[in-house]
Amino acid sequence: MWKGWRVRLRQGCLWLVLVLCVMLSAVHIDLVSGEEPAAPPGVLERLERLEKKVEAPGLWKTLGLKLSGGVDIAYTQNFNNPNSNLNQLHIFDTDANGFMPHLAQVLLEKPAEAGGDALDRAGFRARLNFGLDARVTKARTNPLPGVSNSEFDYQELYVQYIAPIGNGLDVKFGKINTLIGYEVIQSWENPNFSRSFMFGLGQAFTTTGLRLTYQFNPVVLASVGVINGWDNVDDNNRGKSIEWLVALTPHERFGLSFYGSYGPEQPNRTFGGTFTPGPPLGNNPASNRLAAGTILTIKATDQDTIVLEPYYVNETNNPARASNSALKSNARWDGFAGYLIHDFTDQWSFRFRGEIFEDAGGARTCSGTFDSAGGVNTCFGATNTTPATPIAQTLWEVTPTLQYKPVPSLITRIEIRHDQSNKNVFQYGGIGTNHQETLSIEAIYLF
Known about the structure:
alpha+beta, Porin, 16-stranded antiparallel β-barrel, 20 strands, globular
């Protein structure tokens, strides 16, 4: 019995060895002939899906596309506790004693490069804004101000080409951030959370048109553009404005920029395309706006940066006189802002801004002409539907800010701001006052 079992076991092992030899021979034949062995059902489909996943970022990189952006949330406490629940004369941080989802920004771009072929030299940018701040930026370009509360706005949308001329002539065509001023729309690129009076009330946010930029050498850069005007996507008159910038960097610790614009900015065009004659005329040479300013940047130490910005604007045929005949015939506003940035470490930083802003013609403050997230650019006594009479005044403010970055992509700030005017344009409870104090806490995530 055991002898028979051993014979059968030996025969089974021989058959198993024979089957393995046949299988290995088949694999060898396939490899020699260049044919792959058959894969189990479903494996090829899975591999194909994985390859497609790999192709997507590869194509993205090949095209040179970049995606970035940020999210900005803040809370602002107004110690005057105004009955209107508005921070008077602020432009983005307008809600008193409340949380505000300010901005979710998505930036998709393909930067143009000067040192490559024609494809490398071409590019574009689309900067898309969502949230309450989009109401502010959209209001500046809305042909029907005050009608739309849409919380979407395309801050920038342009195509770019660096022509092979000398060091490369940078050509941008579309809607672009303005050349005017030190501060910008997104707060994380500014030293402080809140914006200055000068930026919020007295400068353009964006321009739409054609801009040429040329880097003559490491020291001198110049830009010039032909634009619809300040913040005008849909031009409000028949004229065009000129913008310019000359930036000098004689030393790595010192920079000096001269910027400005000139042209007709007052509207003589109604929505729908009808132009009306008579002053104020947007295409009247006697009704042009001249803006000029300087930005001086000093890197005093490795930890300290000082920025100084004087600014001046003059415009004939003051539009504010329509509401207040006592105002001057020319609209003039000017200001001076100074910034100190001290970096204790890569994580901790202290920032301080001080400024004075004079609205001598009453054209930029208290007129209620600029929509913002919490209402309009109002002073005490105004409502969202009945703007106050324009007031000529002088404003000043001081704003210390402490910034902490737990990680490079997360920025937190706490800011105290004191506003002062020579007129009772702020609101204390239900009465007018000449001052306003706010405390803001901000969190930003960048990607």
